[in-house]
Amino acid sequence: MTVALVLAVVRALRARRRVPEASAQKVNRRNYLSRVLRASRDKGVRRLHAVVPNLTPAAGNEQLVRIQEAWEKLNTRGEVRVVTRESHEGIVAAAELAARGIEVRVDRSHNANDLSFHVFGGERDSVVINHRARRGDRPFLLNGPEPAQVFQNSFDQSWDVAVPLESVLAEEALRPGDTVQQACARSHGVRAKYQLDDTVTASLVRHVAFRHSAAVVFIVGQPGAGKSTVRRHLAAKLRALRFQVVELTDYPFAFHDHVHRQIALEGARGEGFTAHAGGAFHVRDERDLEPALRSLSNKVWENRGHTRITLVEFARSDLAAAFQVFGDEVLAAAQVIHVTASAETRAARLAQRAQPPKLAIVGHTIVISPSDDHQLPSPAAKALYASDHGHQQLGRITTLKGRVHRIDNDQDDVELDRADAELDAFVNAVVRPYKASRTVAA
């Protein structure tokens, strides 16, 4: 949403008299900040989402310190999220907020530097807007759900395209071909440059570690071992640590080939696929699934160079052949979680889950949504996955040496306590070398 469009919305709302008349007189910056502070201290407020392109470090400024303190308190009883643009001053200010537990993202596409807005939600909805021009600050105060929703939509758009502060810092610390020691040395330089405290530095180190050596995390294992559960739980854990995460599996690509075959479209995709009741299928040979695996590999390659962490789930009896599809360059910055369970446990889970795909008609489009808990026909289970030699196969892949982590998922873990502990151990294993290396010059 552009400055002109936002201001046009403000004027339209005022003209329709659905909200009280907004203040538009020229005021000094202290008055504008006082308005933000008053709204931030309102006990009825439970949420603040703000786009502040010109975010300013407190640097001893009492008024800014009080605003940061108010936002910290608000964040403990609700949620505070802030988007700013990429600048040295903005990153320093963002780090100050992050040290107080506030989540900040950097919008690299944010070219407008004269409009900020704060959307307050709770018992009363309000928006504090400031149109900053050469002649001074021009704040507006709008009350009510209608203007709040307009600016909330704009915030959501900015938030979705913005990058977590920690990812921006990690990107600055990394160079292609860096060793662990070099990445750590640059991380210390970034800490000094932006005056990061210990909490933000620890988060920076986590992001550097994952971007450098776990940009892709493969979750592999036999059907029924619990790969999807582990993948979803790891994704939630990483998002809580302010990573952006993409989750991929090969099943949608395989299901695409299955449908391609069943409706007799031209081309070789889907050869060897046989349909089963419940929307399931099996293949005559695991090599028939290679096109799906290559499609998955292409998606992984598309994510390379981005700040996102990619979680990749698939099941294969021949893991050595499967990993060759992804190539050494991807594997060099990857980790593997091998999920295991006994044959009896896997068979019981497969018998219980059997979620068929969902079909829906949306306009003139037919949408088919396969489930993670899809059925595996018994012929496929017996022919392709009769035994699990994954651990031995992974041990022979030299590119992955020292980066394979096993999770025993033989027992049903309803509360996910065991999985949580093992995934914490996985995160710590990725980060540990970057905590230990501190002295090598960049």
What does this structure look like?
- With 442 residues, the protein is of the alpha/beta class.
- It folds into two domains: 3-161, Endonuclease, Chain A; 214-411, P-loop containing nucleotide triphosphate hydrolases (Rossmann fold, 3-Layer(aba) Sandwich), CATH 3.40.50.
- It has helices at residues 3-16, 29-40, 62-77, 88-99, 145-161, 165-173, 180-194, 198-213, 227-240, 251-262, 290-303, 319-324, 328-331, 343-353, 378-384, 390-395, 417-436, and strands spanning 45-51, 79-84, 103-106, 115-122, 126-133, 136-143, 163-164, 216-220, 245-249, 273-276, 280-283, 309-314, 334-340, 358-362, 365-369, 404-408.
- The strands form four sheets. It has a seven-stranded mixed β-sheet with strand order 6-5-4-1-2-3-7, sandwiched between helices. It has a five-stranded parallel β-sheet with strand order 9-12-8-13-16, sandwiched between helices. A two-stranded antiparallel sheet has the order 10-11.
- Helix 4 (88-99) links the parallel strand 2 (79-84) and strand 3.
- It is globular, with a radius of gyration of 26 Å.
- It starts with a helix and ends in a 6-residue tail after the last helix.
- Residues 16-27 and 438-442 have low confidence and may be disordered.
